Amino acid sequence: MKILVTGATGYVGGRLVPVLLDRGHDVRTTTSSPDREQPWWADRVETVVMDALDPQQVADACEGVDAVYYLIHGMGGEDFARTDREAATNMADAVRRHDVGRVVYLSGLVPEVDDEELSAHITSRREVERILSDTPATVVVLRAAVLVGSGSTSFEIIRQVSERLPVHTVPTWMDSLVQPIAVVDVLEALAGALDHEGPSRHYDVGGPEQLRYGALIEQYTKHAGLERPQVEVPLLPTALVGQLVGSLTDVPQLTVEALVESLHHDMVAADDDFLRLLSDSHRLVGLEEAFRRALAEPVSSPEDADPMGPMPQDPVWASGGDERPVAAKVADAVKDVLPRP
């Protein structure tokens, strides 16, 4: 099958491409920065330049492909919803123009609340789902919450907050359930979505365990051998928490603030229908094993690396962030959230 993978230099896309190649697919990837260093698998794929906001480039990238993985989304800034809408519309137009048969989109879990209670981040993801689904293609949407693996935005936030804060202050409004999932399980489901039979639909994807956010952080600290007392704090504004966590971690601030906004509601799978996308031999990875593999040391050859662990194309803020002393980072975080004189 001829497959286009957009967002192939991102966290999930960079790990998905070798999975598709190993399964015998012919893969085309996109890049918006052809001059930067290419991923380790680049010589095995066709790469085209594509700006998701350029309709002609998107159309050219879709020519002659059987399926598209849409792994593009914004995570912050005042215009991210508009940008997501425009990029998804360009892709939908290209899918219609070239009669692409299948689109697979990785989205976020949608809590069971009224639309006006949804975060801007989740609202935008769902709007993209609707735009892509309004095409003749079979559209398979996978909705996930926290992805566990080195380099995952959610995991890096958990890791860096756990390691840098001597005491974990957990807002009382963050007492929601979450169902984390190992990135290798998501990769298996994404690859299996090519074989989905039937009409367009979404699948909620989640790992074997559901737990509250505080318990998730506590499990990580225990696994990492850290001692971090946890204190619940009432009346902490969401914006303040997002600003503090964004300042404390090396993950881009706007991305952190967008994710924190989504923590008010339970983020768990409504069912386990996605298991039908997995191969018979695939076993879901439990949280303890996921933590262990995510914290593994990098290996010299990416071809032999566990996708759960560090990979060469991961962002600079992955693998625990930069090497500045923790005390300096905490001091900077406090300074960022204090009111200016």
From TrEMBL:
<feature type="region of interest" description="Disordered">
    <location>
        <begin position="296"/>
        <end position="324"/>
    </location>
</feature>
<protein>
    <submittedName>
        <fullName>Uncharacterized protein YbjT (DUF2867 family)</fullName>
    </submittedName>
</protein>
<dbReference type="InterPro" id="IPR051207">
    <property type="entry name" value="ComplexI_NDUFA9_subunit"/>
</dbReference>
<dbReference type="InterPro" id="IPR036291">
    <property type="entry name" value="NAD(P)-bd_dom_sf"/>
</dbReference>
<dbReference type="Pfam" id="PF13460">
    <property type="entry name" value="NAD_binding_10"/>
</dbReference>
<feature type="domain" description="NAD(P)-binding">
    <location>
        <begin position="7"/>
        <end position="159"/>
    </location>
</feature>
<dbReference type="InterPro" id="IPR016040">
    <property type="entry name" value="NAD(P)-bd_dom"/>
</dbReference>
